[in-house]
Amino acid sequence: MRNPFSHEPTGEHAEIDVAGQAETIAALHGPDPAAAVEAVLAAPQRHTPPVLCALAAALFAGGRHEEGATWFYAAQLRARFDVMRCADPTVGGAVAILRERYGEPINRWAFTEARARLKVIVERAVAWDRATPHDYDHRWINLHGMGAFGVDPGAPLSRPEEEWPAIAEQVRADYLRGLHEVLTDLD
Fold first, then answer.
1. How far apart (Å, rounded) are the C-alpha atoms in residues 185 and 169?
2. What is the pLDDT of residues 90-122, one digit of tens each?
3. Which of 99, 111, 4, 5 minimizes the C-alpha distance to 52?
4. DSSP character for 63?
5. What is the tally of helices (H) and strands (E) in the chain?
6. Does residue 6 belong to any structural domain of this protein?
7. 62 within some domain
8. Quick check: helix, strand or coil at residue 109?
9. Which of 10, 84, 176, 184 qualifies as a FRET site for 158, CA 20 to 30 Å off?
10. Model's pTM, two decimal places?
């Protein structure tokens, strides 16, 4: 009998492979992240939002602030999309975890030193997201919800794929609207 308090994913969730994601994040956080940075930049569409956040942090720490901020906001956007296309309503906390882990130095810089460029940076991230395929396993997000622990076995992991384009556009529109509201409030 399976232990109901186990932290191991069950069912289809157990098939979601995030080992490569974890290795890339570790390399980006390592003492010499240059090779990992270049590898991710060579094919960013193939990497999950957590990897893009780690990329953003590595770039930012290396003095490439605007580039790091762009990747951080692109990662946030994709993470929000992954949350919205996920059928498990309990996965939303993953976006907050990424923001808490990576966002503070980038947001502080963007909202103070780069405030005049912030709109351009975020619009660049949104344009990249719109033009670039999501060639990664979007189900990474499912491992952050209760469904991964057998709460609703057999439930679909994602909303129907035909809904995804509309969801993506709604997430982009909401993201840009939120940016404009924040900038208006700051003015």
1. 24
2. 899 999 999 999 999 999 999 988 888 999 999
3. 99
4. T
5. 8, 0
6. no
7. yes
8. helix
9. 176
10. 0.91
Closest CA to 172 of 164, 160, 161: 164
The token pair that represents 61 in the structure block: 């720490």
Neighbours of 108 (CB within 10 A): 11
Q: Indicate whether 85 belongs to any domain.
A: yes
Instruction: Count the domains in the chain.
Output: 1
pLDDT, position 84:
97
Q: pLDDT at position 10, please?
A: 62
DSSP 158: B
Q: Tell me the C-alpha distance between 13 and 149, whole Å.
A: 8
Per-residue pLDDT of 38-54, as tens digits, reads 999 999 999 999 999 99
Structure-token pair, residue 19: 């080992």
Three-state DSSP at 151 gives: coil
Q: Which two tokens stand for residue 169?
A: 């556009």
- Asked if residue 3 belongs to a domain, the reply is no
Residue with tokens 């979007």: 138
